[in-house]
Amino acid sequence: MDKKVSRIAVLTSGGDSPGMNAAIRAVVRTGNYYGLEVFGIMRGYQGLLEDDIMRMDNRSVANIIQRGGTILKTARCKEFMTKEGRQKAYDNLKGRGINGLVIIGGDGSFRGAVDFTSEFDIPCIGIAGTIDKDIQGTDFTIGFDTAVNTAVEAIDKIRDTADAHDRLFIIEVMGRDAGYIALHSGIATGAENILVPEQKTDFEGIIASLQEKERRRKLVNLIIVAEGEESGGANEVAATIKKRLPNIETRVAILGHIQRGGSPSCLDRLIASRMGYHAVECLIEGRHNVFVGIQNNKMNYIPLDRVGKKKGTINDEWMKIVKILAS
Ligand code: F6P
Description:
Elements: E1 7-12, H1 20-33, E2 37-41, H2 44-49, E3 53-55, H3 83-95, E4 100-105, H4 107-119, E5 124-128, H5 144-165, E6 168-173, H6 180-188, E7 193-195, H7 203-215, E8 221-226, H8 234-244, E9 250-254, H9 266-285, E10 290-295, E11 298-303, H10 316-325
Parallel strand pairs: 1-2, 1-4, 4-5, 5-10, 6-8, 6-9, 7-8
Antiparallel strand pairs: 2-3, 10-11
6-O-phosphono-beta-D-fructofuranose binds at residues 15, 130-132, 174-176, 227, 260.
């Protein structure tokens, strides 16, 4: 097999995240700079199976660095998880002479790429695009910084009204398997409690601290709940608290998908640009089937088949800090 890449394609897959457009732009412009032909695949693996692929030049990515969402659109594609689906994908790439692929997405998207590269000779490079920041081997994922700042802005506003009415607010942020958005936004907004999927929810502790705060008339309390919290999210947490403390006035706010949209922050544009550039360099230099992360401000390349969900970094010390600072 000729390992030299000459035609590459880029796709975005899984949940979108602010900064994906900046990464697409970096891949396209770096590829063109090095004289490669660059293609964009619409709707992730779905578009790849349907041969929904177009040529991209530098102009086609003009004026997108500041835009949320993804101009290539995205999807979660079940068919790519099958051997037949991946065969179709390979045939479409081969048909166009594409011999390198950049995948911007989360760990699910990379699992698909691992199967694909074990079966076919098209090198793939992964870039972490997810607001959840739950991928090993990188300190940053594209979209997290923007999402967490969106959450902070919203929670600050909720605190104003919570303060005016002396209310307890239970605020749900995104994070099905990971509590980073909850942890970061909770600490940054002075939340009294932060509940994350990585830790067991200590209802006894929450009730005791609310009672203690009531005794000293500290009635404004914010509890930030990641959607993947073990009891099921903000509504469930509120119901449990209400049962035990019926006199406390409680409101629930679910921030939802506003966290996924919006103009990417400077940090997200920067890391997306850097990762996109290095992804193309990897393809050119023959560093194939790797994930491009950034660790301690250096590029970190790990084999795609070793990339998984980041686990266990939300520890008791973080929770101790939350308690001390919110007392
Ligand atoms: O992309 C990650 C994420 O935003 C999770 O935090 C959330 O659970 C999930 O996607 C929501 O996905 P969907 O938009 O498909 O409902």
